[in-house]
Amino acid sequence: MIDKLDIAKNWLPRYTGMPLDEFGDYILLTNFHYYLYTFAERFNCEVYGEDRPMQAATNSQGLTIVNFGMGSANAATIMDLLSARAPQGVLFLGKCGGLKHSTEIGHFILPIAAVRGEGTSNDYFPPEVPALPSFKVHKFVSQKIVEHGHEYRSGVVYTTNRRVWEHDQPFLERLKRMTCIAIDMETATLFIVGHHNQISHGALLLVSDVPLAADGVKTEESDQLVTEQWADIHLGLGIESMMEIGDKGEQIRHFIY
Can you tell me the distance from the alpha carbon of 10 to that of 255, in angstroms, rounded to the nearest whole number? Predict the structure, then answer.
């Protein structure tokens, strides 16, 4: 019978259009075309998969970026398919909704954990298993943020499959009771599936809206403003972190039970 690795080796190029040997040791994940094409323009590298579900590009230093789409199902898919390459580290550059007064638009968040509200991760581990980032990845990214004079927040992110929930008052009250710092649609899934596939992983999130505030729900205009002001900084931090972590990052050995 065909095994998972065989499937992943066939499907990673199938989904992205990029040959398996073009993928680097370190991966940036995003769900925004702007990040992918800005990366490709910066490093003058080819974009694969414009006719595929996902797009990818790799620079001459061996850093790959993948635009995997939106939502927990796509997040699980790309983390499963990346097992074909067994990368040394994966960093998700995503946007999130801030749920605290201290999380203003344009702030960066390094999640210390994510609540598994999406359901997809239950196919990989029981609900009791926490969705956590890899310590080495987040430690190095935090150092890079501070080096560049930016601030960041840390806390727990709530990950949901729901896209339109801002009108649901019982759901909003539940979010407040959970005391999460932000909400998104991918982080918990990426953490759990990364853990399942033994891939070091992390997430650097950019607060793009504050849905609990009056007039704080994201619109096309407000999201465009966030992209114009913060996306290049966000992407730059991810690029520098993942290009240097192999040489400068602390070596940590993880034990599998």
Answer: 29
**Domain CATH code at residue 209:** 3.40.50.1580
Whether 111 is covered by a domain: the verdict is: yes
What is the value of pTM for the model shown?
0.93
Q: From 87, 86, 93, 46, select the one nearest 68 (Cα to Cα).
A: 93
253 inside domain: no
What residues make up the domain containing 100? 4-248
User: Tens digits of per-residue pLDDT, 13-57?
Assistant: 999 999 999 999 999 999 999 999 999 999 999 999 999 999 999
Distance CA 35, CA 38 (A): 5
Q: Where are the beta strands (DSSP E) in the chain?
A: 26-30, 55-58, 63-67, 89-98, 108-117, 152-160, 182-184, 201-209
- What does the alpha-carbon distance between residue 218 and residue 78 come to, in Å, rounded to a whole number? 26
Residue 73 belongs to some domain of the structure: yes
The total number of structural domains in the chain stands at: 1
